[in-house]
Give the backbone structure.
Amino acid sequence: MEMVVTSTDVEHGIDVPGLGINEPVQPEHPAVIRFLAQTPGTYPMRCSVLCGRGHNKMVGEIVIDAPVTSSR
């Protein structure tokens, strides 16, 4: 799978331990993150770079409905 993330203000990071993702995200420079999701489920994610006020509220989840067996 592939996801593209970007920041419009300061450096952030995307950390999804269950999928082996921990990538910095620079302002105005999209980060292309490639990963294999072999098990369906809901994977918590958070910002992994101390980015300022509200950092501890920067959370979300990635939902994988079906396993992916190969990467590009």
